[in-house]
Specification:
The structure is a homodimer. In chain A, about 50% of the residues lie in helices and about 15% in strands. In chain A, helix 5 packs antiparallel against helix 6 and helix 35 crosses helix 36. Chain A is elongated, with a radius of gyration of 33 Å. In chain A, the strands form six sheets. The first copy, chain A, has an eight-stranded mixed sheet. Chain A has an eight-stranded parallel β-barrel with strand order 25-26-27-28-29-30-31-32, surrounded by seven helices. By secondary structure, the first copy, chain A, is an alpha/beta fold. At the A-B interface, helix 27, helix 29, helix 30, helix 32 and helix 34 of A face helix 27, helix 29, helix 30, helix 32 and helix 34 of B.
Chain lengths: ~900, ~900
């Protein structure tokens, strides 16, 4: 006779973790915990083979009933009760559980085994009659709903009426009499809906519940779930039958939750709370104030010691801090559930490093215990959760936008970048609120504490720049309506005027009225200023030690997107191994340079144009000298000019007028030029290498500045590693042409130095951004002219989806509602679409040139799931904004470790 | 001893066409013609193996010299002269010729074998001393330049001085004395430049020339040419040495060119001209008026008969009309060259059909003899070439833009669409000149003879709509500057005001001042009006017959892009087998409908919106009823609304004001809505199925209209084949959602009819446009919800290249200059980029659903090279604008026949 039922309890279990295919995930876990010595309530598991049989034959296998009866016997003995015995009734729960977790597939039925006749027996076991009635009415409702499909609302309505009749605020205030009446009402509801009375035979209850669980395997919801998650090849679901335990049966009972370490600080102490003589839901309801777990040491010292032992056992076994639900029934401790505990960033860091010190974890395992989101908490300011909740309750949550750049900022509202600069100069903290931002606004953005925009997505200008600056940003907040004329914005019923204070949380996308208390990132201050304050020392030391392990584990290099010498300094502080993207256009937007750039664009003759460019050139060269000097022998990838020229000219007629006056030009000429440069779809227009090809003098100036700066710094003895990157290449011919022009300039500058007897040992790499679908498709041809590829996944995502990052907000929220877009492809790299193109590009590129260097410099370079994909793809490095570097380092390490088994010692 | 030299002459040849790898294309052709009995001047070919040896060893193989000497002997015997004999000198030419044609790789040396001592002998052979001196000075200059690298200009300068001294207008006017002096001057130039005198030994001349040809195989120019054209694996070049013949040696000599049929009309008569006692270049110089070829019949009846025999021989052999160059030397006819003759469209059609009647061609071969461009000439009006040349000489060519829609139009300039309509209503012919057009301008475009825009590319709105209407369009003409305020445009020095007449040629992109004479397409008139006029009957009959052969040969089906019942009628006249793209938005732009559409967009409540849509619905249904009725049982693919909503609202404040008044709305509300809908990159914005998903009521209205129309027409007994197409799908989830909504409506309408006892047998196909790179990458998933794919290659090209069709004109001309973009990817489908994505989509789609129906409805569907690609890809049909249907049918047939051998009988 095949074995279909597996018992567990009292330290013994017939199954192990390896029986997961038959016992399901939940079942196998219960057996394993039992073997481990964790006091879980005993029970048994019906193999998933039964489900398969049931599905194929439409009935249960004949062997099942005797085996279940036998297991029930054993269970009764273990609990000192008996299933179906009205004097000492054994109550059980019935739960589904397949080999792969399918949350929400099937509800649970609790308290099975209770009936009219057993009420008194249950009451006598310690809980009293009120407790027994309460358990009974729950059984009727759950059984009716889950097994018989009676609408949940019918029971809820009766319960609400009972409360109203009794004048009770909560269910807990219903007295014995009220509950007795409610049990009768529930039975009536059941009878009317089902057409027969609630079954009084506990065995009948049990078998109906088992059948219901087995049926649920093939209900619509479960089938859809499996199809969507591509779950195939399973036998079916196992069924777990487990003894009920109660923490409300008297003074020696209790219920509680505890963490094996402090989840807020990571300190190595039991942390939690409990309620004597209570059920789990009483803790949740919050009507009685729970006791801190330390009190248990006085009240039930043996149980407390048992908990401490469990902590050691579980941490050693699961190699992680645990979150335990426990119940003490008449002096006996039961663990109902244990799982890895949620924790704050500082706690995660402390727990991981201390567990290594305590020999519980290897450094490589420790790297997997800290989530990227934990590091984010350490690196960006956060809102105090209690204060945020209070503000929400007070109706001060104005709107929700996109969480475009993490961190929290508080300040007075201004709408004009110039005003932001002026206010900041006077020491004021401001939030810059704009419909969207453009490169001209950079000064104002730098001066503001944070940025709030009403349009634009996660890769809009505001978002990208804010992330680069490490400033919080809420973008695409379409719920606010900005009125620049009246200098205010509306959000629902509120109107917020210039000068009012708001708080924005760029980690959640929330905007609050008024100043909310925040906690600043001390770690960042320490990292950037390199002066240890005593109280920060432990945090910093832990961070430094942890990041050492991280760096040992990863294969991917991590570079920074850094446009200025100051950015480079910050990037180094966060551990950048080079610059993966230096956007030269940002250099042009500095106040003393933009007039020169504009003069160049507006020049009518080539001579005028050259003269304007000649005046820009020394500035560019100085920038590069400073960046090369700062980065030393690390690689620095510099992208030649990318944005369309119209981005450098003012849009408003008045500004154009002013510019004309400034440059001594006919205003009509400025207006005409702006109009001439206007584009219908600037994203798909005259930019990138297209600009370099039609305006060779611009690229020539930039390349001269790069080459001269590199040679100058190299002449001082530093082996600099400049990499010149050509943007928006779509064909091999484009890159070949631009490359030949670059090489000519390099050769010429080298020759000029050689005449002076100087030959600095610099190697210039020349490569391209891969940011057009066509570049991916023709990667093999393009690679013949490229030393490196750097994926520009922002533009690649836009083109692959045909979706402008600036225009998506009008329909993407609706897409999220309809479940059409589980994640924003601008936030998390779209593997099946964009990722497939990247794979083609990697394969094509390496086919042409095995040593081709590969990286990514799009915004995805700092997002953990995307970093993992880059690791799998075999890229050489990722590049991201400086503040995200530690996160990218961690993600890279975790990707490298992903193949290693999780629960074994190394 | 290996054979390295192959002789030909007097009907005998040592090589055949199959020896092409060793004898080169030109050499093998000479041998083949000789074998065929064509009287080509005799000669011999040096195998390309010699070139390989020369390249590898740096010297000629020892066996070569005796073989060349022997071949020279034979050649002399054949010509009755002797190479190197001063009394009866044999002159030869030396030419390169590899197995693959490499035009311009190497110049030719003529008249080799002439020297001071042989002048008298040559003169005595019939041409006289002037003739001999002229031949000699040519030899010195060619040999000096080609073999010794003396600058061509040095000889040219001496020649110009000689003309000046003699007061001669042309070289032909130089007398014997002047030529003798010139020969001396040339020899001096040669000696000074080369450092030695011009070689007097004919054999030395010959060997130096042969070496120069062999060296040229590896010169810079030739290597680059081979690299660019990916020519690999050749042995090298062969060398052809051929006897010179002269048509200017006396009264029994002549030179001429003739076509074997009339290249203008196709009539089956010899057509050409000749000059007695002259050289080929005298015909070109145009100083003497040549005689028509018919005169030869009187002057040299035997030679004329010989030409007629040659015509028969060549047409039978090459199965095509030939263009022959011939020389008669002292009564002996030599053919110097024969090749397929260029011809007009009507001639091509007549020749192809008559050659089938004459048994010279099979119908399948005839299909390959007519080029798509020939049909274009038959279908669109053309400029008279002479008139166009005259206009250019008179400086009336104003500008060149893109040849966006073929045909020629003449009319007075207007700048406002409304004016175009008003003028046309009074019978005036106008050309609509706009910076660009938008859907609101359709009325004006329909009223105009042709359209001229200053921005936008080959797939801009103006271009697409014009092609659809069969109207000429010159687009993206950035050389004109439109001043709408002053109602004029500037083009160079010209300013053209409203009311002035211009002519535009949409086949070449040219814009002329004034009215140029044009020839209208009689064929189109006959096809559309179906009334045969006697003189058009032969043309129409030939066309009809030819297209029958075309249709038998092709596999691809050809459908039309047709938006209205009128379009459908035109499409059918041109042979459409269905509608591949019915763009429903064009239906909304009709004057009585656009206010309803605008009211819908501006509606504030859902009720208002539904009310507005309800008023549009009957119009849509009526359109569909008419289209289904017109198309009968042919498939009709209807695309649901695609453009962003802002395209339906006016852009200018005054128009917005007027709209507000019309609809009784607050002007502020209209302004705000326009602003709210504004997009940075509309191409990548809120359009296509994104619009359908956020505004389900719009798609629901359209689907109801389609379904009800189809059911209504089907109830009348017509088995209509509606195909509902969802645009801009990027994920399977999008299509699944929209499909389920469409299916619900179909089911509901069917059920409603069933209740009335009506069950029309209509099958609704539901499919999607594949126009985003992501859709190609995820085709397998998407196909699970699609009955068909239709490639929208306009948008697919835009996204793949990251290139807006409307913004490319600012840099694409420069790209063409730099050779970066051999063809416009919006005109000819980009195989390695866009084509690669299409291939992925075809493979993925068919993997999911073997019976998936595949088509293309982008503008490429009517372009021959792109149609060929669609055939190779295995698509089921192409769809193009109605006027291009015959061209697409021909291209499809030629693609199907491309694998068949060209020169064999079937």
């Amino acid at each position: 006779m095949p074995k279909l039922v597996y018992s567990f309890g009292d330290g013994q279990a017939e199954g192990t973790l390896a029986d997961r295919p038959r016992l399901g995930g939940k079942g196998a876990g219960l057996h394993e915990m039992t073997r481990l010595g964790v006091p879980v309530p005993p029970g048994f598991t019906i193999s998933a083979e039964v489900c398969q049989h049931f599905e194929q034959q439409g009935r249960l296998p004949a062997e099942l009933q005797p085996q279940v009866e036998e297991a029930l016997e054993l269970l009764g003995r273990r609990m000192g009760r008996r299933f179906g015995d009205p004097q000492a009734p054994l109550l059980v729960s019935v739960r589904s559980g397949a080999a792969v977790s399918m949350p929400g597939m099937m509800d649970t039925v609790l308290n099975l085994g209770l009936c009219d006749a057993a009420l008194a027996g249950l009451a006598a076991l310690g809980g009293g009659r009120r407790f027994a009635l309460d358990a009974y009415r729950r059984l009727i409702a759950m059984f009716g709903n889950v097994v018989k499909g009676v609408a949940h609302e019918r029971f809820e309505r009766a319960l609400a009426e009972a409360r109203a009749r009794a004048g009770a605020r909560t269910d807990a205030e219903l007295d014995e009499q009220a509950l007795a009446a409610l049990v009768e009402t529930y039975q009536t509801i059941y009878r009317e809906a089902v057409g027969e009375p609630f079954p009084q035979d506990p065995h009948a209850q049990l078998w109906e519940a088992i059948r219901a669980v087995l049926r649920s395997w093939n209900n619509e919801r479960a089938r859809t779930y499996r199809r969507l998650h591509r779950i195939e090849g399973l036998l079916g679901t196992a069924v777990n039958v487990q003894a009920m335990v109660f923490g409300n049966t008297g003074p020696h009972s209790a219920t509680g939750v505890c963490f094996t370490r402090n989840p807020a600080t990571g300190e190595d102490v039991l942390y939690g709370e409990y309620l004597p003589n209570a059920q789990g839901e009483d803790v949740v309801a919050g009507l009685r104030t729970p006791e801190p777990i330390a009190r248990l040491q006085q009240q039930m010292p043996d149980r407390y010691r048992e908990l401490l032992e469990l902590k050691a056992l579980l941490e050693r076994h699961f190699r992680d801090m645990q979150d335990i639900e426990f119940t003490i029934e008449d002096g006996r401790l039961y663990v109902l559930q244990t799982r890895a505990g949620k924790r704050t960033g500082p706690a995660a860091l402390r727990i991981a490093t201390e567990m290594v010190e305590q020999g519980l974890l290897s450094p490589r395992e420790a790297v997997r215990r800290v989530e990227p989101a934990h590091l984010e908490q350490l690196l960006f300011p956060t809102l105090e959760p209690a204060a945020a909740r209070r503000a929400r309750e007070q109706g001060r949550l104005l709107a929700r936008g996109l969480n475009a750049a993490p961190g929290v900022a508080v300040g007075t509202v201004v709408f004009e970048p110039e005003e932001a600069e002026a206010a900041a100069a006077h020491g004021a903290r401001v939030i810059l609120v704009r419909p969207e931002t453009s490169p001209e606004d950079i000064g104002g953005m730098a001066a503001a504490q944070g940025i709030l925009t009403s349009t634009g997505g996660i890769t809009s200008h505001a978002a990208v720049v804010a992330r680069g600056m490490g400033k919080p940003c809420v973008a695409g907040c379409s719920a606010i309506e900005i009125d620049l004329e009246r200098q205010c914005f509306r959000a629902g019923a509120h109107t917020v005027h210039k000068g009012e204070v708001v708080s924005i949380d760029g980690s959640t996308g929330e905007v609050y009225l008024g100043a909310l208390p925040t906690s600043q990132s001390e770690l960042v201050r320490v990292l950037l200023e390199r002066e240890l304050e005593p109280e920060q020392a432990p945090l910093y030391q832990r961070f430094a030690r942890f990041m050492e392990w991280v760096d040992q584990a990863r294969r991917l290099r991590v570079r920074a997107n850094a446009d200025t010498p100051e950015d480079a300094r910050v990037a180094l502080a966060f551990g950048a191994e080079g610059i993966g993207l230096c956007r030269t256009e940002h250099m042009f937007f500095e106040p003393e340079r933009i007039p020169l750039m504009r003069a160049m664009i507006l020049a009518e003759t080539e001579a005028e144009q050259r003269a304007a460019l000649a005046r820009v050139e020394p500035h560019q060269r100085d920038d590069f000298v400073a960046i090369f000097t700062a980065m030393g022998e690390r690689p620095v990838t510099i992208r030649l000019l990318d944005p369309p020229l119209h981005e450098f000219l003012p849009k408003e007629p008045e500004q154009q007028q002013a510019l004309a006056q400034e440059l001594g030009l006919d205003p009509e000429r400025v207006r005409a030029k702006v109009q001439q440069l206007q584009e219908f779809n600037p994203m798909l227009g005259h930019r990138g290498c297209r600009l370099g090809i039609t305006h060779p003098e611009i690229y020539a100036m930039q390349v001269r500045a790069i080459v001269e700066a590199a040679l100058e710094v190299a002449a001082r003895g530093l082996r600099v590693r400049p990499e010149i990157m050509v943007p928006l290449v779509g064909s091999a011919a484009e890159l070949a042409l631009v490359r030949s022009r670059i090489e000519a300039i390099i050769a010429q500058r080298r020759a000029a130095l050689r005449e002076q007897g100087i030959e600095p040992p610099v190697e210039f790499a020349i490569g391209t951004m891969i940011e057009l679908p066509r570049a991916c498709l023709l990667a093999e041809e393009i690679a013949q002219h490229a030393d490196f590829f750097s994926f520009g996944t922002n533009d690649l995502t836009q083109c692959t989806w045909g979706l402008s990052r600036d225009d998506g907000q009008s329909f993407l929220p609706r897409y999220q509602e309809e479940g059409l877009l589980p994640v924003d492809p601008f936030q998390v790299l779209d593997r099946p679409g964009v990722g497939a193109l990247m794979r083609l590009a990697v394969e094509g590129g390496r086919r042409a040139r095995a040593e081709l260097h590969l990286g990514i410099c799009g915004e995805h370079g700092g997002e953990p799931a995307s970093v993992a994909f880059c690791h799998e793809l075999g890229l050489d490095y990722v590049s991201c904004s400086p503040y995200r570097i530690p996160i990218a380092r961690l993600a890279a390490a975790q990707a490298a470790l992903a193949g290693e088994p999780q629960l074994r010692a190394e």
